[in-house]
Design a protein that fits this description.
The protein is about 60% helix and about 5% strand. It has 16 helices and 4 strands. A 4-stranded mixed beta sheet has the order 2-1-3-4, covered by helices on one side.
Length: about 290
């Protein structure tokens, strides 16, 4: 075990130097003491799982590289660090959710425990049936100094240049994150999130899931139909009902297109006595 920690420590130190950080600079980014980082690099201790993720994000490396897991060689010169950088660039195009910050905004997240704030947003969204994926936070030199963007798969869901930065900036950006994910969840959803939601429902609604998903309802079809009904105004709180209605439509009508499935499911969700439909009419009148 000690040998493994030493090897991990060497890779942390090498990656830190390659990224141009001193021990103190990296420690500040991670929110730990330089002494703790020094112990990691010497192999005297190791970061926990959450810190390992942050470490990889900041240094631009993968956990596989850090723990020494061998991957298929894709570089001719044997440079494992460059190989890992290539894999990282390929992964980054499929980030479901990123909060990208200008240079003046990044310190706001370094000075406070933003992770706890994001978890609170996650809990609030979960009450609405929304599973928010892990949020990757990073700075990009292309942004203006006070600019903020929320991206899904490199597509811009939200962008704003802040007028000023103060103690309320973090709270404001958490509100923006919550609203953006809620309103544009169809852009964030992917097959892995659908699978996680389905797995979570198994314990509560086994008859709805067992032998049906993915045997009869492929994850890809569920994703397409869920995105479709979301874009029509339905919420993720209806997700179990979407599965039930979709399975019914598949039994009743073979050879139906995705667009037809969306239409049939959405019509059932948009009944006049649906709570959200009633509330929507009230808002329109007020």
């Amino acid at each position: 075990m000690g040998h493994i920690l030493v090897e991990i420590g060497k890779r942390i130190a090498e990656s830190r130097r390659n990224a141009g950080f001193t021990q103190e600079e990296l420690a500040n980014r991670l929110g730990v003491t330089p002494q703790a980082l020094s112990k990691w690099e010497k192999g005297a201790s190791s970061p926990d799982l959450e810190m390992l993720t942050s470490l990889c994000d900041i240094l631009g490396i993968s956990a596989d590289y850090l723990v020494g897991k061998k991957r298929k060689t894709i570089v001719e010169n044997g440079n494992l660090h460059l190989q890992d950088e290539i894999w990282k660039h390929l992964r980054d195009g499929y980030e479901p959710l990123e909060l990208v910050l200008g240079s003046d905004v990044m310190p706001v997240f370094m000075e406070k425990d933003f992770r706890e704030e994001i978890v609170r947003v996650r809990v609030e969204l979960a009450k609405e049936g929304i599973l928010m994926p892990l949020v990757r936070i990073r700075d990009r030199y292309m942004l203006k100094h006070k600019e903020v963007m929320i991206l899904a798969y490199e597509n811009i869901l939200f962008a704003e240049e802040l007028q000023g930065i103060d103690e309320g900036t973090l709270d404001y950006l958490m509100d923006v994150l919550r609203t953006t994910v809620r309103q544009q969840y169809a852009e964030v959803l992917n097959v892995d999130i659908i699978k996680d939601l389905v797995d979570n429902l198994k314990g509560i609604y086994p008859a709805l899931i067992d032998g049906i998903v993915p045997q009869k309802l492929p994850y890809g079809l569920i994703l397409d139909v869920t995105r479709g009904v979301l874009k029509r105004g339905s919420g993720m709180i209806h997700f179990p009902k979407v599965l039930e209605l979709l399975e019914h439509e598949m039994r009743e009508r073979e050879g139906t297109t995705v667009a037809e499935y969306i239409e049939a499911v959405a019509k059932q969700l948009e009944r006049k006595d649906n709570f959200y439909v009633v509330m929507g009419r009230r808002l329109e009148k007020s």
